[in-house]
Write a structure and sequence with these properties.
- This protein has 394 residues and is an alpha/beta fold.
- It has 2 domains: 3-72 and 221-382, Alkaline Phosphatase, subunit A, CATH 3.40.720; 81-216, no CATH class.
- The protein has 15 helices and 13 strands.
- The strands form 2 sheets. Strands 9-8-10-1-11-12-2-13 form an 8-stranded mixed beta sheet, with helices on both faces. Strands 3, 4, 5, 6 and 7 form a 5-stranded antiparallel beta sheet that branches.
- It binds zinc ion (ZN).
- Zinc ion (ZN) binds at residues 10, 291, 295, 332, 339.
Length: 394
């Protein structure tokens, strides 16, 4: 039996006065989610283990059965995997933003969302002037730094310190001197770049320096097929999730038109999803849009994004009668505009029914599946326990 897991990022929320005391999931028209709930059963899932940060990377590791407390080392190595960069044993990979720092203040964590066609040559110019670390150009302001034979450093996400002096937030710990030297050198190199002079002339923010953060070594994940005895595939526009899938040996399927934003191509995702289910036993189909709407604090966009995820599922259900789970990875409440670690509602078709009618926070809280740990979900869907791994990853 084939298994489809539809993950609507950040869908869970709170009752909102704008919606007459309903949550976005309750207010949205979701015939396909409702069908899964009616034909199946509901419950709550704890996706963020205590002490972990409420993020999609942590939640997705948990849902795939890899305990983040054991396996999560940082964003850098997951993004490296997604970019197809393989790290050596001693390498530490950091996410490396192009940022705008002026007068010692973090003005913009994204250097004005610099486009790749301008960011990539800047990163190449900085890379040419570095010794002791290497740089890889990514998309827009999101690049990668690799520190060979590194020991790690305590770093600060640049989006957390916008408008603040950067001095107190420079890297600390063993690798800090190498990182800070690279950051200082990048400032000299970037100052002289024509791309930056043109950006300033157009009234746009220049990329004044690089900012490495969230570094770690490559986690070693037991291959998905060894763990569950079936093949797995991932469809997501988010690098972190594609990186996890690649490290778990799952097939990573890139969908043209999938943007990771509100305008993503839902029909293309449905089409590629159907194809993937012909080949793979298990498909993790992730849609980022509801989370983006939550961060924007837009009730309308969130309801619309949920309805579009539902429509995408509807297209797949036209020709798929296997096991289906629908869930968010974490709540992104409109009121808070950020993630929380609360358990999320989930509905599963194909493992019995319990009288649930809809996938909502309230119905799921009374569902027959109760409150479960994320690591229990795939064994529940696949009808078998995960096989023990080879021990702790490095
Ligand atoms: Zn988010």
């Amino acid at each position: 039996m084939k298994v489809l897991l539809v993950l609507g990022d950040g869908m869970a929320d709170e009752p909102l006065p704008e919606l007459g005391g309903r949550t976005p999931l309750e207010a949205a028209r979701t015939p396909s989610f409702d069908r899964i709930a009616r034909e199946g059963a509901c419950g709550l899932l704890r996706t963020i283990p205590p002490g972990c940060e409420a993020g999609s990377d942590i939640a997705s590791l948990s849902i795939l059965g890899y305990d983040p407390r054991e396996h999560y080392t940082g964003r850098g190595p997951l993004e490296a995997a997604s970019m197809g960069i393989s790290l050596g044993r001693g390498d530490i990979a950091y996410r490396c933003n192009l940022v705008t720092v002026r007068d010692g203040v973090m003005e913009d964590f994204s250097a004005g969302h610099i486009p790749s066609r301008e960011g990539a040559p800047l990163i190449r110019a900085v890379a040419a002037g570095m010794d002791g670390v290497s740089l890889h150009a990514g998309i827009s302001y999101r690049n990668l730094m690799v520190v060979p034979d590194g020991s790690g450093a305590e770093t600060t996400p640049p989006h957390d310190i916008v408008g603040q002096p950067t001095g107190p937030y420079l890297p600390k710990g063993e690798d800090a001197p190498r990182l800070i030297r690279a950051m200082e050198r990048s400032r000299e190199i970037l100052r002289a770049q024509p791309v930056n002079r043109e950006r300033i002339a157009r009234g746009e923010r220049p990329a004044t320096m690089i900012w490495p953060w969230s570094g770690g070594r490559t986690p070693r994940l037991q291959p998905f097929r060894d763990r569950y005895g079936v093949s797995g595939a991932m469809i997501s526009a988010v690098d972190l999730l594609n990186g996890i899938a690649r490290l778990a040996g799952m097939e990573v399927i890139r969908v043209p038109g999938a943007t990771g934003y509100l305008d993503t191509d839902y029909d293309a995702k449905a089409r590629y999803g159907r194809d993937a289910l012909e080949r793979s036993d298990f498909l993790y189909l992730h849609v980022e849009a509801p989370d983006e709407a939550g961060h924007m604090g837009s009730v309308e966009e969130k309801v619309r994004a949920i309805e579009r995820v539902d429509g995408m599922l509807g297209k797949i259900l036209e020709s798929f009668d296997g096991i289906v789970a629908v869930l968010p990875d974490h709540p992104t409440p409109i009121r808070l505009k950020t993630h929380t670690a609360d358990p999320v509602p989930f509905a599963v078709r194909g493992i019995g029914t319990d009288g649930c009618r809809r996938l909502t926070e309230r119905e799921a809280a009374g569902g027959s599946l109760g409150l479960r740990e994320a690591a229990d979900l795939l064994p529940l869907l696949l009808g078998k326990a995960a096989r023990p791994g080879p021990g702790k990853g490095g």
